[in-house]
Known about the structure:
- The complex is a heterodimer.
- By secondary structure, chain A is an alpha/beta fold.
- Chain A has 2 domains: 1-80 and 168-260, P-loop containing nucleotide triphosphate hydrolases (Rossmann fold), CATH 3.40.50.300; 90-167, no CATH class.
- In chain A, 40% of the residues lie in helices and 23% in strands.
- Chain A contains 11 helices and 10 strands.
- Chain A has helices at residues 43-50, 73-78, 96-107, 114-117, 124-136, 152-164, 182-198, 210-216, 234-238, 241-248, 250-259; strands spanning 5-14, 17-27, 32-37, 58-63, 66-67, 81-83, 170-174, 202-206, 219-224, 227-232.
- Chain A is globular and about 50 Å long.
- Chain B is mainly alpha-helical.
- Chain B contains 14 helices and 2 strands.
- A two-stranded antiparallel ribbon of chain B has the order 1-2.
- In chain B, α2 runs antiparallel to α10 and α2 (25-49) crosses α11.
- The A-B interface holds A 51, 73-74, 77-78, 82-83, 85, 89-94, 102-103, 105-107, 111-112, 116-122, 144, 162-163, 166 and B 178-184, 186-187, 189-191, 193-201, 204-205, 208, 315.
Amino acid sequence: MSAILSVRDLEKTFGSIVAARDITVDIPPQQRVGIIGANGAGKTTFINMITGYLKPSKGTVRFEDRDITGHSTREIMRSGISRSFQVAQIFPSLTVFDNICAAAAIARGPAGTLGHALRPLRAPETMAEADAAIELFQIARYRNTRAATLPQGVRKLLDIAMAVVGWPRLLLLDEPTSGISIEEKFALMDVVMTALKSRQMTVLFVEHDMEIVSRFADRVLAFYDGTVIADGPPDVALSDPRVQTLISGTKVAKAESAHV
Amino acid sequence: MATRANLVGAVCFILLAAIAPALPGWFLSLTTIAFANALVVLGLIILWRTGLVPFGQALYYCAGAYTVALLARWFKVSDAFVLIILGGVIAGLIAFLIGFLLARYREIFFAMLSLALSMILYGVLVKTESLGSTDGFSVEPPTFLGWAPHGQALGFALYWLVLAVCAISAVLVSAYFRTAAGALAVPIRDNEIRVEFLGVSVNRLIHIKLVIAGTLGGFGGALGAMTIGHVDPAMSYWTTSGGFVFVTILAGAGSVAAAFVGSLVFEIVRSIAVDVLPGFWQLILGSVLLLTILFLPEGLGSIATRFRRSKEPAT
């Protein structure tokens, strides 16, 4: 099957600093890709280049056989890619339902056109979309809670639900479990991954916890010094000696011993 | 819900229109001015909800007023309906052009830049001798589809005209608040990054809001010019803008109706204050503002909301 996302020789430099280089990756549809790497290894730069937040210095990004290199964030978001954030980006003054409603209203149809802008925010189909997303992410209990008062885990789920409500085909999750306690991490990822699977989404997620990666990823991209040093199924990639010494350190040893 | 609010609004406007002959003359003109100003405030509310406070909204008010005055003076246009529409259109056009710059700024920079732009218009008008400089010039009484009323009849005609424009604007702005573009006000205030990453241009949404607010400001100015019968550069001065901001704080940005109630209350308080304590009326207005901020931070409109909430069963 041909790749949904195809990245060739991607490079990003800031002056003399090379933030990312020689990144060439093909992601087939519905694959769940875990992205690992130490801070400053180029993970977020990679995500930012795909979402148009940063313009690559070199190389190409193709999504569903369309060249999206250097397109604006808005164009890329409308073409079927969406993302969540390391720090949940939500609307604190609105309720959970209104947060997702707003996201659904924007995501429906060709945004930017007059007809789209003038459609009611609370159209019946938008509200149905929002409630479906609330069900999907199991946050019905918080439906009418103001987002500012939500627990951290629910914030994360809301953030992802807002990214998902427009039915993107590719979703980028930037550290979905950051700020979540170890006990809650797996439950949260279970909810997220089940939800995304039911919508047949291709997922790229940045994650520091190797146990989460080995449990939820079909494939691992290991970043070091701006480039991919290992690419393969979790058991292969995580046992790569370079990955063990450069990225996971002692953590991977723990993950390994847990596996054996 | 929306239709009920429209119905209540319609009844209020019809009542206000019907009682016109019973109102004392001074109150009639006070209400006419208050409701003309309320249109500017309505525009301010649109921006306010987005977290933007323009300190220069008088620019559009003044533009609408001078459009009317100059059309009457240079082109002998006297029909009130044509004048209002053109006043709004010209002000909206100015807002559209300025919007390319202004829509990129937020917070204090937005506030001060809008203030600076209104003061530029003030400066230009003050320096233009042919337009009467600081004195301004008078505006010919308008005609209404060929009918040219005078005296008391003109007062009634203008009062009804203002009511009609306010009613139409109120309906359209409420409808706008329910659309995706209109409802994306709090989300923009809360988190622009998220809105952008959902695929919409925040700057474009704000640009649209600026044009709507500017057009409403132009309507207000056009009606103000006809009612007062005179225009002068002070209409663009920063204290005029400050007055509109004052009324918006008093009214609150919570509802469309609040703009009209707030504006009317403001005019009443001001005329009473001027009457009772001619030298100290600013002191009274200042105290009212202070009390509003202390006890009604969400404005007069929040009284209605509180009342409604207290009647609803707790959920």
